[in-house]
Each structure stands twice: as structure tokens, then as C-alpha cells.
Automatic annotation (TrEMBL):
GO terms for molecular function: endopeptidase activity; metallopeptidase activity. It comes from the Bacteria. Residues 134-225 form the CAAX prenyl protease 2/Lysostaphin resistance protein A-like domain. One of its GO terms (biological process) is CAAX-box protein maturation. The keyword Membrane applies. This is CPBP family intramembrane metalloprotease.
Length: 292
């Protein structure tokens, strides 16, 4: 974690706000127009599984909007924005994705064995294949959201006094408002935005400690994939899209999920702090060894 902040043009300035407005406008207008056009040409895309595919495809307008904002409003380097001067480690991306899926499954199975009556298990090959085919679109959605929340917005706030705090908290609040105010609110009320806020904090911490978007995108993608392919529950917005996963729960059990998510976030934070201290100590030892 060095957080070099190479992108000097992104910050709390007029150009950055104009770029944000341009990016969000292209996303909203493009997505709405795309969905309406396909619904008009292909009526079958108005509901069910087909409507979910169309909804996820519409996410392509978000990275397009951010690209246009960076290229033509801020006139800054796309590569610099994405990588911040770092190299992408495919190994680390895989580790983050697999670790997140593993943790997801472990805690789901703990809940499954404790609350067995709340679950039903169905092995339907057709449903599994349909859900697996959605993975590229799930990845597209996660990448798009990370570009906005942990990319553009994070970069706007990171340079402030106590920048890391603002860069973690503010995008997480906005992330929770966009995701938490949905049909699931009727079942979980304020706990649902809190759940998404904590997810946003976890993603933002991954962004901060790894100094790039890869880790947060992999964690985000893995959680989304788990909620599609492994576990679904009643009151979920996914029910309207006819998504049937292997495990089905009669409710989300938000009272269990929130403490688990808090615990994982806290453990991740202190683990990364420990890694940073060890790295700093090694660097100091190396520097002392070089003194003649």
C-alpha cells in the first residue's frame, strides 16, 4: 500500500464534478434508452431472465461514461486512472476471488446447519447453467460499479485532509443508497442499506490497501456470483428475474449477515495493517544493513 495518487486532475474541483455528471448522465440515459429500445423490439426482454440480461448489459454505459469523462473532460490518462502506476497481478486477483467465494460458502454452510429448516436445496442443471452464463455480466456490473465508486469517487476524496477516511466512507454511503433502497427494504428496512454500506467499506478498504481496483472488483464479483449461483432468498430482487440457485433461504437472515460482515471487514483491516507494519520493518532493516 503506497497510494501514490498519480492522477492529479481528479479531486474536489469543478472539472471532476463536471466529469462525474457527464459519466452518470451517459450511464443513466444510455441504460434507459438501451433497455427501452430492446423492450420495444423484443417484448420478451421485459420480464424474467431475459430482462436481467438486458439490465446487466446496460451497465456497459457506465464505464463508457467514465471513459468519456476522463478522456474529454479531465483529459487524463485512462491507464493511470485504472492502475495508479501499479502492475496487475493475476495471481492476487484469483486469490481474492477464490478466498471471497470460500468465505461466503463457509459462513453460508454454518447458517445452513444451524437453521436447516429455513433452507431448501435444489440441484437443477438447467438453472445452474443459466446462472453460470450470467457470470460475464455479473463481472461487467462489478467492474462498472468499482470504476465509479472505488475509482472515480474514491480518487476525488483521497487527496483531502484525512483523505482515506473520506474516500472510504463517502463512496460507501452513495453505494448503499443506490443498492439499499430497493424491494428488499420491505423485509429488512434500514438494515439493508447498512448491509450495502458495510460491503462498500470492505471494497473501499481493499482499494486502499492494494492501491488499485483489482482486489475490490474481485471481492465484489465473488459476492455477486455467490448470491446468484450458490444462494438466493425470498424478498430478494432476484426472484423477479426467475433466478434459482442451489441453496434457497426463506429470508436473508440479515441479523446473522451483518455481524459476519463486520467481523470480516475488521479482520481484513487489521491483517492488512499487520502486513504493512511487517513490510515497513523489513524496509527499515534493509536500510540499516545498507548503511556503511
Amino acid at each position: 500500500m503506497n497510494n501514490k495518487i498519480l492522477n492529479v486532475k481528479l479531486g474536489l474541483n469543478v472539472k471532476s464534478f463536471i466529469g462525474l455528471i457527464v459519466a452518470v448522465a451517459i450511464w443513466m440515459i444510455g441504460s434507459l434508452g438501451f433497455v427501452m429500445l430492446l423492450n420495444m423490439i423484443f417484448p420478451a426482454t421485459r420480464e424474467g431472465y431475459a430482462s436481467l440480461i438486458v439490465a446487466y448489459l446496460s451497465f456497459v454505459f457506465l464505464p463508457l461514461g467514465i471513459y468519456i469523462a476522463l478522456k474529454f473532460v479531465l483529459k487524463t490518462s485512462i491507464k493511470e486512472f485504472l492502475l495508479n502506476g501499479n502492475k496487475v497481478s493475476l495471481k492476487m486477483l484469483i486469490i481474492y476471488f477464490v478466498s471471497t467465494i470460500t468465505i461466503f460458502v463457509i459462513f453460508m454452510l454454518i447458517d445452513f446447519f444451524i437453521n436447516r429448516d429455513s433452507y431448501s436445496v435444489t440441484i437443477n442443471i438447467i438453472s445452474i447453467i443459466k446462472n453460470d452464463l450470467l457470470f460475464p455480466l455479473i463481472l461487467l456490473a462489478a467492474v462498472s460499479e468499482e470504476l465509479l465508486f472505488r475509482g472515480y469517487l474514491y480518487s476525488m476524496f483521497i487527496k483531502l485532509k484525512r483523505g482515506p477516511l473520506w474516500a472510504i466512507i463517502i463512496p460507501s454511503i452513495l453505494f448503499s443508497l443506490i443498492h439499499g433502497l430497493n424491494a428488499e427494504m420491505s423485509a429488512n428496512l434500514i438494515l439493508m442499506p447498512l448491509y450495502y454500506f458495510l460491503c462498500g467499506v470492505l471494497f473501499s478498504l481493499a482499494r486502499y490497501f492494494t492501491d488499485g481496483l483489482g482486489a475490490s472488483t474481485m471481492i465484489h464479483s465473488a459476492i455477486n456470483a455467490g448470491m446468484f449461483m450458490i444462494l438466493s432468498y425470498s424478498d430478494s430482487t432476484m426472484e423477479a428475474y426467475q433466478i434459482h440457485s442451489i441453496f434457497y433461504r426463506n429470508s436473508m437472515n440479515i441479523e446473522y449477515v451483518l455481524p459476519v460482515l463486520v467481523g470480516i471487514t475488521v479482520v481484513y483491516y487489521f491483517y492488512q495493517q499487520h502486513k504493512k507494519r511487517r513490510k515497513d520493518d523489513l524496509n527499515k532493516s534493509y536500510d540499516k544493513g545498507m548503511i556503511v
